[in-house]
Each structure stands twice: as C-alpha cells, then as structure tokens.
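Pilot study result, target chain (245 residues):
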Amino acid sequence: MKSTKTDNNTYYFLMCERKEIYYILIFVAGFFGAYTFLLRGNVFCNAQTGNVVLMGMALGVGKWREALYYLIPISAYMLGALISELLPNPIKHHLPVRWDTLLIAIEMLTVLALGFIPLSAPVQIAQVTINFIASMQYNTFRQAEGEPMATTFATNHIRQIGVGLAKEIKHFRLPDKLHRKKLCEHFAMLIFFLAGVFVGTILCNLANERAIWATLLPLGVILGIFLYADFISERTLRERKPSGH
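Predicted structure:
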C-alpha cells in the first residue's frame, strides 16, 4: 500500500483513495449506465465487453462494416486508458493540482456538454464520449484504501460478494472475521451503483438529455474535496502515488 504512515502507526490514505469518493464515483457510473441505455442508443458505455461481443457477432455473419464500427467505442475506451496512464506525472509537475482532480473537472465539463446535445443527434456522440471518460475514471481510481475497486461497473463487486459469502460460510465457526470488511465494502459499492441507476432512470424520464446534469452535483462535491486536498490538507503529498499505481 502506497500510503503515508502517521504518528499513531496507522496508514493515511490520500483523499482520492477514500471509500467515500469511490461510493460517489460508482453512483455516477450507475447514472451513466441508465442514461446511455434509456436515451443514447440502448447500450452500456461504462465497459467494453458488450462491444467486443457485438463486433465478433458482426464478423461471424459477414457484416464487415458494422464490425468496423465497434472499433470506434473500443478505440475511445483504449484512448482514455492511454491518456490517463501518461498524464498523471506531467500534470502534478506542471499544475498545482493532481491528475485525479483534473479528471473530475474534465468529467464535469463533459457532462455539461452532453446535456446540450439533443436526443435527435447521433447517439454515437454521447456513447463514445462516455466510453472515453469512463475509461479514464476506471484506470485512474484503482484502489479504495488499499482494496482494488472498480468505479464504472458492477461485475467485480458481484463476484467479490459471492467470494465473501463463501468465506462467511467457511469461517462460520471460526473467530477470523476479517473478510467481512471487504464483503461489506463491495456490497456498498453495488448498492451505490444500483442507486445511481435508480436515480438516473427517474431523472431521464423527467428531463431527457439534460438529466445528466444531475451528476454535476456529486462530481462537484468530489472536485471540492480534491481541491481542498491539493491546496491545503495534502499539499506536501503531491509526489505520492495512489495505491495501485
């Protein structure tokens, strides 16, 4: 764990590693999932497994042009990972904020722009845009207080809940209950993702394309927390990398 040890022999995790931040991020990701499925082409843009499957299916039936189309969202996702891997060090050496902070600001500007794109516009605009920012978010926020966590999709959390329940059965008569903390954290991530989908569904039915502006509030909270950390509480920790990097 790449964290700072404090005087009382406990570990200090950077603000961008705190569980609370991850809960908010996966809530936003759930909202994005509802938004793209309901309003932008009936697809989920937070991950790329579906696009790879659809590309393979198109190739299997000889629909070459359709197959080539799927290279666009896949490439956007790949580009997001590439950029978020290359930029953190230059950013912290040339700007007064960390990459994590800049990324949240980029997400907010992107969300603001998406709300102005009418539903009559090609759905690919919103899809590829969310592919890109979801990839950067997934690659940037990797561990919540030392525990690997995904902030853009729920599959791993469901798997980890299953693993945790298995350990609960195995350790039922044993005093070792350390697995419960991890189980509860993954369960909380799943609940926050589901809450984002729930809220997103309601607001998409009420506000159409402008519904996505609702995510500016939770993202704004994160931005405020990160700016405070960059300029005040963690100003001396600029060179420290978050866990998992």
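One observation from the pilot: The beta strands are 4-5, 11-12, 143-144, 147-148. A full batch analysis is planned for the follow-on phase.
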